[in-house]
Structures are given as structure tokens and as C-alpha cells.
Amino acid sequence: MGSVDAYKKLQVLLVGSGGIGTMVAYALEKGGKAEVAAVLRSNFETVFENGFTIHSVDHGEVLDWRPTSILDSIPSVSEESWRAPYDYVIVTTKNVPDIPPQITDIIAPAITPGHTAIVLIQNGLNIERPFFSAFPANPILSGITFSGAIESPPGTINHHNHERTFIGVFDNPIAASYSQKSRAIAAARRLVDAYTACGPEVDCTYEPDVAYSRWRKLLYNASYNGVAAILGMDTSRMRFTEHIIDDLIRPLMQEIRATAKAAAGVELEEKLVETMITADVYDKFFKPSMLQDMEKGKFIEFENLVGEPLREAERVGVETPTLKVVYGLLKGLQFKAGERNLEDVVVPRSGEGLRYGGCGKS
Ligand SMILES: CC(C)(CO)C(=O)C(=O)O
């Protein structure tokens, strides 16, 4: 990121102002060190008229709240020369790389090469790779958040789990120079500073070991999220039945541990498995985000949560039988989600060089 005047507020563009994104924007604005422009889609009109209504475990009841600006599309910094460059573009959308358009294309008009830091507050593994190639001169930052916030109905945010966010720098093999790395670290630290200015209500820290924290969170997301979506079941019910934990969740977590070690040299301590299994309050009936998306008929973000660790495991020869079955079932769910958007069933051409048959329109 180019130099930012220490006395000027950070200029932030937020892409994805649902539950998590809105709480990020709220914390940054409340801290007084950042101005947020939020790009809204389905909730644009409601929020434009009435602002957000926030019921927050951390911030209490907030009515009629708006970020500094509300936009209905991605601004173009090159075409609209009066726009100041964004210091940060924070992406909090769901990550569905198997469904176009790609987020790198969506945000491209808002990125100033060599200046804007791109912050991915999203789940999953290897999510940074397309950004390294699309924006080689920009810092790409990792945001991991443990927070529960759901938007329902549009414009109303129910923030029910205390927020803990970790921001760090993805290790970019292309941006190998020392100065590029130190600029990225400075950008991450500056964002943490703006976030924590909000006060003790939020818990945001600089994360020096992004690989570890991503694989650690994957223990939860690669197991609970997928199984919850497949079974249509919250994490409390899985724990009540016990066998779902013993036969699916724990084996999945052990497969992720083995893959993390072999593929990335990341050592996830054995005791983390039980910590993650019991992460949700026992009788809170928590629905992981993939289950929530499925219930809303949306596409599910399974490629970076389950597909990528599976591909990493195959690359380094780790056996992950449970992960493979879960991946296959999730692919089926995604196919069904796609069909819901079509008027008719598309009968694929058979074979045609694809392992399980064609998938194009004949
Ligand atoms: C950890 C948790 C449950 C909430 O942030 C999550 O990542 C998800 O539901 O996808």
C-alpha cells in the first residue's frame, strides 16, 4: 500500500454488506479512524431508506445506522477520477469460485495498483491465489473472523456471537521483495489499529502466522459446515446423536490435521480437535454458515472449505476418505442449487472427455 497520511481516515470499500460485513464496517466507523463505503445489493433500498438495524451482542441495539457512503455498484477509481483511491477493499462475500463471476473481476475497478490493500475476510484455503495473479502489486491480507451475524430480514443484522478477528498477510510467493512484504505487514497492522480503536467491544489482533490460523479454522469449516449442509442439521443435534461426531466430524478433523502437516508443514495440536468439536455452546443449536446458505437456496462455498484441502491431500498423498465422500455429496448439493436457478433440467452430453460425463448444454 502507498503511504497513508496518519491523520487522514482510512478509505475503505466494503464488498459484501451482509451480517459479517456490516459488523466489520460498524466497528471501523465506530473507531473513528476509517470511513467505509459499503456496496449493497439486495438490501440497498431498505438500507438507503432506513439504515441498518443492528441487534449486537457486542454493541447493543443500534438503529438507523449507515456507513459513510452506501453504493449500489462497485465504483471505478480509474473512470471516476474525482474518487480518492481506496486504501483497503475488504471482501466479506461468500466464496464460490465454481460459480461465475469471479470476485477478482468484480472488485478490479476499485483497485488502485500498488496502493489498495485487499482484505479477504472469508473462510477457506488457498483463497488468496487468484488475487496474487490478478493484483500482483497489491498487498493481499487475510482476515479470519469467529463471529456469528446473520442478516434477516434485509437491513436487520442479528449479531449473536462475540467477534474475534485475526488480520495478517498471506504469504505471496510472487511479491517476494522485502519492501513489498513489509508494506503488506504495515497495511495489516494499520487496519488492526483502526479496528481496535472501536474499543473493548471488539477483539481484533494482528496474526503473524496466517497459514496456521487458516488451517486451524478449517478444522471447523471443513467438517461441521459440510456435514451440517448435507444433513440439514445444527451442531447441537450432531453432538446429541454422538455418532455423527464420532463417525464424521472427528475423522474429518483428523484428516485435516494430517493434510495440514503434510501439505503445509502446519502442526495442529491434537487437543484442537476436541476444542473445535465443542466450540459452539452445547445447546445453542448453531447453524454453520453453509447450512444457512443451503436453507436460503443459495450456492454453497464448499470448494475452498472442502475441495481445496482434498486437492492438497491428493497432491501430497494423504488418505482422506471421509473428506472425499463429503466433497462428493456437497458437489451434488451445489448441482441442485444450480438447477433451482434454471427453468428446466439441462441434460448433459454424455462422456465427452469429462470423468463423470458432460455438463454443458447440448
Ligand atoms: C466459525 C463460524 C461458525 C462462525 O464464524 C464459521 O466460520 C461458519 O459458520 O462458517
TrEMBL record:
GO terms for cellular component: cytoplasm. Residues 12-171 form the Ketopantoate reductase N-terminal domain. Gene3D superfamilies: N-(1-d-carboxylethyl)-l-norvaline Dehydrogenase, domain 2, NAD(P)-binding Rossmann-like Domain. GO terms for biological process: pantothenate biosynthetic process. Residues 210-334 form the Ketopantoate reductase C-terminal domain. It comes from the Eukaryota. One of its GO terms (molecular function) is 2-dehydropantoate 2-reductase activity. Keywords: NADP, Oxidoreductase. The keyword Ubl conjugation does not apply. The keyword Disulfide bond does not apply. NCBIfam families: apbA_panE (TIGR00745). This is 2-dehydropantoate 2-reductase. It comes from Neurospora tetrasperma (strain FGSC 2508 / ATCC MYA-4615 / P0657).
